[in-house]
Amino acid sequence: ETGVTQTPRHLVMGMTNKKSLKCEQHLGHNAMYWYKQSAKKPLELMFVYNFKEQTENNSVPSRFSPECPNSSHLFLHLHTLQPEDSALYLCASATSGSYNSPLHFGNGTRLTVT
Amino acid sequence: AQKVTQAQTEISVVEKEDVTLDCVYETRDTTYYLFWYKQPPSGELVFLIRRNSFDEQNEISGRYSWNFQKSTSSFNFTITASQVVDSAVYFCALSEVGGATNKLIFGTGTLLAVQP
Questions:
Q1: CB contact under 8 A, B100 and A96
Q2: pLDDT tens-place string over residues A19-52
Q3: Is the CB of residue A107 less than 8 Å from the CB of residue B44?
Q4: Nearest C-alpha in B relative to A53
């Protein structure tokens, strides 16, 4: 089983819909992350969780709502999104408390907002 | 402010050519870590290498090699005898030290296309 699994792989939603992205890691990590990848831009860190507690919210609009019920699962709840929110959303996990710990990424969810 | 610059947006080479991907970083930290990731069309970022700021030895792993030069704040990546399977977007990243977790600051990536 792959280390970090994201579902769904693709999602198309209207601006009034509510949907959720799911991430699960099987690596025994305690830190989990959401990154946004838009065309021609660096990966943008959105949220960080450490032992289920949110430690970083990088000025993300409230239409994105993360949830981390345990160290293995991370969700991103989406509502009333805008077309500019269309992007690849990547989940990652890492060993907590170690700056040399590489982040392990999932395959991402390709989101299209119509 | 911490920043990673990958000036090469796209590179196209023919199979078996050598190719170097450039990475320049800015940081005020004295201890930091640098990373390279590969993103194939499937989307997943694959970790390739990590280097800490105190270790300036170059590293070689098969056809891959990395040249870390603190004096020029560069961490370049060379693929020798490139293959079609090397086609991907390559990202350089810098650890942002501080807080309880490792946070990576990424460059914009270099799209490498290896033609048969």
A1: yes
A2: 999 999 999 999 999 999 998 788 999 999 999 9
A3: yes
A4: B100
